Amino acid sequence: MRSSTRRTAGRTALAFAVAGLTVVVPHPAAAAVAAPAAIPLAHAATPQGTLPATGCTTVGVAATCELYAKPGTLTVSSIAIPIWGLSSTDTGVPGTPGPVLVVTEGSTVTVNVHNGLPGALSLAVPGLLGGADDRIGAAPGATKSYTFTANRAGTYLYEAGHAPDGARQAAMGAVGAMIVRPAAGPGTAYGAAFDDETALVLSEVDPAFNADPAGYDLRKFQPVYRLINGRAYPETDPIATAAGRRVLLRYVNAGLSTHAMGTLGTEQSVLAKDARPSEAPYLKVSDSIAAGSTEDTLVTVPPAEDGPKFAVYETAGRLDTAGHRVGTTNTVAFGGMMTFLDTGAAPSGTDTAGPVTQKLAAAPATATALQTVTFTADFTDVPNGGSNVTRAEYVVDDPAIAVGTGTPFTGSFGGPTVTGAQATLNLATLAPALAAGKHVVYVRALDSQGNWGVVNSVVLTVSSSGPVTTGGSLTPATGNGSAAVVLSATGDDSLLGGTVDQAEYFVGTQGANGSGTPMTLTPGTVVAESATIPALSFSALPEGPVTVYAHSHDSFGLWGPAQTLQFTLDRTPPAMTSGIVEPSPNNGTAGSPVDPTSIKVTAAFADPVTNGVATPITAAEGFLDNPNGVLGTGLTFVASDGSFNATAESAYGLIPLSQLTGMTEGPHQVYVHAKDAAGNWGPYAPLTLVVDRSGPLLSAASATPNTVNRTTTGVTLAATATDNLTAVAGAEWFDGADPGKGLGHPMTVTATGPKTANVGVVAGPGGFGVGTHVLSLRARDAAGNWGAPVTVTLTVTALSNLVFSDGFESGNTGAWAAATGPVAVLPGSALSGTQGLQVTAGGAAPAYLTDPTPLNESAYHLQFQFRPDTLATGTGTVNLAAGLSATGQQLFVVQYRKSTGAAQVRLGVRRSTGVVAYTPYLTLGTGVQTIRVDWAAGTSTTHKLTVGTASQQLTGVNTGTVRLDALWLGLSGGGTATTGAASFDAVLSTRFTLP
Length: 995
Hints:
The chain is mostly beta strands. A hairpin with a 2-residue loop joins strand 12 and strand 13. Helix content is 2%, strand content 47%. It starts with 12 loop residues before the first strand and ends in a 5-residue tail after the last strand.
C-alpha cells in the first residue's frame, strides 16, 4: 500500500481485535483473533522519549563501541532458533538484532568486533564506513577494529561485512542499527523535531537455514518468521507515546526482502532514506523499504478520541507467524511484523488499569497429551496505578471466557508486584482434551481496584500422537516385485522430549498400531530406522502404486503418525513401436551418418500404462541373429535425447562394419528390446539387415545407332539390370579406360521390379572422336555394389555438327556435368517451352552450369536465350558465358553490365599473348534476347557477337593453337556489387553451323 490517502469512512475494511483493541486493516488481511471480553485496556508506560545513548562509550569526540559476535538462541512463539547474535559485552546474551549504537555527528567512531563465530567476521556500515570492503575480517577468536567519522546524522544499518561468510552471518542475525545524532543533540532529525523515537530493525528467519547455515542454499531461502527487533507479534514491544506527540520511526531493513511498512489510522511523513534527507518530507500511509536500506518517518499521534493504539505493521506481507492457528481452529493467528503506537490514555483521577503480565513461560512448551504443563509468570500494577495484585488466571485458546472463571495461579499475591506465580494444566485429565497442535494460553491478573489487566499469551504445542517419522525412502522405489526393497526413515521425538524405542511398517494397508513388521533402530530422541521388505510382500498385490506406511513409537507409549511412501509395482515390460537398420542393404562398406565405420540400429520403445503406472525406460540392447541373447549382454543402445528418463524413448546402437565380414549374403535379423525402471525386459523385436556384396548384372546392352556421322543428333545407350537381393539404384557408362566406380557418365534407372530395372541415356555424339569406341555400361544396387561392366561398340565416321543442346524441359540440370552456386530450373524462367534456368547472383560468388562435351574444338558456335530480369552489376561486369580450354583458360567470354541504365553485352576473346580483346557493347532490348557467339582458333581469326539482328565482331585476332573443351553458362567473374537474378533457356552449341 503506497497511497498516502487517509482512511475514509466508506473504505472496504476488515475489523479485528488484538489485545482488546479494535483496529481496521485494509483488505487483504489475516483471519481475526477473538478479543477478550470485558478486559479493560492496559495503559502504556510514560512516553518513551528519545532513545538513550547505548552501545558506545563517548569521551570528547571519540566514541568506542564493542560488538561481541557469538552463537545464541532466538525464541519466536516458543520455538528456539539458533542464531549468530551480537552483544555489547563479553558476558552478554547474544541477540538479533545487536545493540543499538548511538553516537553524535562528527564523532570519531571505533567499533571493536570480537569474533566468536566459526568463520572470519568483518563489519559493514553502508553510508558511513568508507574505504575498500574488508574481505578478510577478524579470524575466529580474534578482534578487529574499524574506525570512521560519523559525518552525517541519520539512521544506519550495521551488519556482518564482506568476509567469505558475511552474507550468511548477516542472515543468521549479525545485524543492528546505528543512530548518528545531529551535533545539536537529541530531539531533532533532519531538521524536524520529535518527542519519542524508536528503532525498528526488520528481519526474517528461515529455520531451515538457521539449522544449517553453512550447507543451506540461500537461493532457497523461505522465511516463515518476519520480525521487528527480533520478535513477532504479539511478542513485539509497543511504542509508548501519547496523543499529539510526534514519534520518529527509524526503520532499518536488515532482512533479505523488501518490506512495506505502514501505520493504521494515521500517516507517516518520510524524512529520509538511507540517512539522506528528503528534498521535501512527504506523507505516506505505507512505504516500501528495500533490503539493506533505512528510512526515517515522523508520525503525529492522533487525538485521544481516535483510539489509544495505532498499528505499525507490514502492509504488503503476511501478518502471521509460521501459519500458527488460533487454538484448534483453522483461523490463522495474527503475527509477523506488527507493533503499536500505544498512548495508554487513562482517565484522570482513579486507578482503572489492571496489572501487567510479564515473564510468562510454559514448561514444557511442547507436551504430550499425557503430561502436565506448568505456567510461570510475574504480575505488576506499578506502571498502572500501583494497586495490589490480588489474583491471576489463565484460559486456553479463548480469551473471551468471562473474567474470574479461568484457572487460577498460586503465588504471593497481595502486593503491587508478584513474582514467580504458577499454575498447572494436566493434559491427561483435561476434558474435553486439547486437540493436537498449537494452543494459545492467555494469562491476566486482577488488582485491588477491580481492574483486570490486558492479557499476555504463550503458545503451547500439544501432541496427541508420538514421534514424527520423516525422511522415508524406498530403495528401489520402483520394481516388478521380484526383488527385496530397503525401507529407511528417521524417527524424531525431539518435539516431545521422549525416546523413540520402536518402529514398524505396513505394505498396502495400514493395520493396528503394533501389528506391523518391526524396523531396526537404536533407541534415541532422533533415530535412523530401517527394514528390508521381502519380495514376497509384493507378490500378491496387483500391478500399480503400492503404499508403504512407516511410523514410530516413543517412551511415552505413543505411536506417531505414519509416513506414507509410494512403491511403483510395474510388471508390464516396454515394447518396440518402430525401428530401422540403416544403411540396409549393406555391402560391408557403407556406414551411418553417426559413425561411418558402423551400421546404425534405431528403435523407439514405450512402456504401456497398466493400472495407472508406467515406468521410465532405462536401457535397450540388441542381438545380431540371436533371438535368445542373455539379458543385459547385447549391443548397448544410447538414448537419442542423451538420457533414458521417460516412458517413451528413442534409442540407437552401432554395429561395426567389420562384424559383417564373413556373414552370408541375404537378410539377417537384429533382435532389439528395452528394459524399464522396474527391471522388466521387453520381448525381442526383429529388425532386418540385408547383407549384399554382389552388384547387378546387365543384359541386352546396346548403342542405337551404333554408327554415327555428321548428321546424327544422339546415341541411345540401354541395357537391362538385374540384382540378386536388392533394388537397382544407379548406372553409368564410360568410353575407353575405366575412370573408377561412380565416376562415369550417369544413366537413367527405370525400375521394372523390386530387383530389376532398365538403364539408359541419350549421349551427344559430339563428344566422341572419329573412330571406333568401346563403351562400357554397369549398374549399382541399393547396397552400393557396382556390377561388372558390359560393353557395346560405337563407330564414329565423322564428327556431328551438334555439340550440345538443352532446353531444360526435363525440369532439371541433369544434361549438364556440374552445377555451381544457386541455379534452378523453374517454370517462371521459361523463355521458350515450359521450363527455364534461373541463376541468382551472390556478389562475387559464381553460379553457373558446366558442359564438358566440346571435344578439342577449333571452331565453336554458341546460341542461347537470355532475359536480364533483376540482374545488376553496379560499376562492374559479370560473365554470362565462357568457353574454356582443357587447362581452364577462358578463350571467350560474354560480358554483361547494368547499373542504372540499359543492359548491355560484349564479347571478349583471349589472344595468344593472353591479352583479351573486346567488341563494343551491344544494348539489349526489352524481354527475351537471343545471344549468339562465333569463335575460332587460328593466327588470324574472326569472332562475332550477335544479339537479335545487331552484331559486333573482332577480325584478324591471333588466338593461337589452343582448343575449346568446356562451356560455362550462368554468372561468373562478377564483382561484389552483382545482385539479382537472370533467366537462360534454349542452349545450343555446334561445330560447323548454327541453324
